[in-house]
Amino acid sequence: MSVTIDIAGLPPERIRFAPSPLGELTAMLHVLSEPGHHPALSGWAVATAALLESELADRLLEAETLWRSARADFLIPGRPGLTLADELDAIDRIEDEAYVAAALTSQRASAPIHPMPSPLTDPAARHLALDIARARGPQQAAFAELLLADPPAVRAWVRRLLHDCEEAFFADTWQRIRNFLTADARQKTDLLIRQGPAKAMAAVSSAVTLDETRHRIVIDKLQDVSTSADGDGVTFIPSIHGRPHLTIVFSPGWRPVVQYPATETGLPHPVPPEVVQRRLEALAHPVRIRLCRTLSRGGHTTGELAAFWQLSAPAVSRHLAVLKKAGLLTTRRRGRYVLYELDLDTSARLGIDLLEAVLR
User: Fold this and answer.
1) What SS3 class is residue 257?
2) Phi, psi torsion values for 307, nearest 5 degrees
3) Whether the Cβ atoms of residue 268 and residue 286 lie closer than 8 Å to each other
């Protein structure tokens, strides 16, 4: 399953890499609303939440439907600005119909793949939007009802809320990370210019590939949908607080945007879902679990393992081959013998790798 972005005939300069203050702020707000999605940022989330004034924390709860399950499309801008104010000014220029539709779509399990009638003018679309909001809880329902009743007032309220977040915690953090995100975007742009789109996509994420035959970007996601960058281009936004999510704007009428985890020194690259699945399947066999328990204590030869577990050497070799192919074992030589050991770092990260793979 994948989201595909058609780039046939698109000049390389229409593939843009740039940091976004608004994109990073709303990634932070998602972390605060769903800290369990971001184990590496749990310390930041706890510390930041503790410093928020209760009045601001309450307003964030009222608006979290915009960024909790999915983010409203206008919160990940296709044309990033230099400052948060620049990007909020651009949002102010969006028509009410597009703003409201994007805000209410963020409450759905998946984004629509065809243009939908506006909930402001179409009674059936309005009824559906309210039904979805009510199913998600009273806060979501109240926000949807207010937005449909008075879009300008709610839009102004959301803008004030984001400005207050900037003053409370975002401005200092953005000052610290802006240069890092700019450097990441510049490095990806350089790859694009010097080595082509395929290399640039590979550097974004293992979940992003370029189908050169069909001239499209393919992104591993839970939906099978297609969009096009024809004429308008496509934007890639690096993020620190977005990890492990790979967030995509692809709704009709919006410029395609991908917010991806920036490459951070000291952090391992996300493991592809197929590798995580291979490791889980390798560990699903009870004999292989027993072998891993033995190998976690130190290196053993095939013969030692066969004797200890009363198995034939060929059977042990077959199980070890499966574990080795999954990347769970390391080997070293001792004379003419090969010693197998459990890769403790890889094994210790398996839970986090699984979480990142399913949350991406």
Assistant:
1) strand
2) -65, -40
3) no
Contact predicate 64/31, CB 8 Å: no
HEC-encoded secondary structure of 290-303? HHHHHHCCCCECHH
Query: 55: pLDDT confidence band, cut at 50, 70 and 90?
Result: very high
Are the C-beta atoms of 57 and 131 separated by less than 8 Å?
Answer: no
3-state secondary structure of 176: helix
Q: What is the DSSP letter of 168?
A: I
Taken in order 136, 140, 145, 151, is the CA torsion positive or negative? negative
Give residue 63's identity as a one-letter amino acid code.
Answer: A
Alpha carbon distance 24, 173 (integer Å): 10
**5-43 tens-digit pLDDT:** 888 888 888 899 999 999 999 999 999 998 888 888 888
Ordered strands of the 208-211 beta sheet? 208-211, 216-220, 2-6, 225-228
Assess contact for 113 and 225: CB atoms under 8 A. Answer: yes
Question: Cβ distance 289 to 283 under 8 Å?
Answer: yes
331: closest CA among 352, 305, 310, 309?
305
